[in-house]
């Protein structure tokens, strides 16, 4: 799945497709323009109306873009399978019904494409969000983190994600990194699989 001219997001989606099943519950921790939310919903929604996506973003313009994309792309029955929250992803547990375990938490870090570059994900909230994601993840589930390093602060955020992943116990987590060695400024995909 890393062959050819695939963009990093397409590579991430290929991985998600291998982890998610119809009826699963997943989290888009950074909705942005909603492309990942839509992709996730299509992977989990089944005809009987199960499968659910919780989406988070701190920018109202991002939540609005996501809502519009979902309205244009899904029928009303499928739209009911998504809950969008204008909230920091570090607070994801405040939105999930008690006891909910999810199969995938997707982070697509950085800034809103097409929006201002002044609002970006930051290590100070990304780290507690990763901790929260690790608590709500079901065994067999995946935390997927796409990290961009081309903007100021991107490399520091990568360090934060890497050191979190490295600290997870090997008995219960399998953590790896997909990196384009011949394109050092390309985004990296970190995959944290809970055994
Ligand atoms: N997944 C998106 C898509 O498919 O279009 C792209 C996400 S974009 C690279 C990163 C998003 O993270 C931005 O929309 C930004 O507002 C959001 N963000 C920044 N800090 C956040 C936080 N603490 N909690 C949730 N979202 C945050």
Automatic annotation (TrEMBL):
This is Uncharacterized protein. It comes from Spirodela intermedia. The chain holds residues 49 to 243 of 243 of the full protein.
């Amino acid at each position: 799945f890393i062959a050819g001219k695939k963009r990093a997001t397409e590579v991430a989606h290929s991985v998600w497709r291998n982890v998610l099943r119809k009826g699963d519950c997943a989290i888009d921790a950074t909705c942005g323009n909603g492309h990942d939310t839509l992709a996730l919903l299509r992977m989990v929604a089944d005809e009987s109306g199960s499968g659910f996506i919780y989406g988070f973003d701190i920018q109202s313009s991002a939540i609005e873009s996501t809502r519009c994309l979902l309205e244009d792309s899904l029928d009303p029955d499928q739209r009911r399978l998504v809950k969008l929250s204008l909230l920091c992803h570090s607070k994801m547990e405040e939105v999930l019904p008690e006891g909910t375990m999810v199969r995938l938490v997707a982070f697509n870090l950085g800034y809103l494409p097409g929006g201002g570059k002044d609002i970006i994900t930051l290590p100070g909230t990304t780290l507690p969000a990763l901790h929260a994601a690790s608590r709500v993840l079901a065994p067999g589930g995946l935390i997927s983190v796409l990290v961009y390093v081309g903007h100021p602060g991107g490399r520091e955020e990568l360090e934060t994600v890497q050191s979190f992943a490295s600290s997870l116990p090997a008995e219960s987590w399998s953590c790896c990194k997909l990196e384009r060695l011949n394109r050092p400024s390309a985004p990296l995909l970190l995959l944290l699989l809970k055994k």
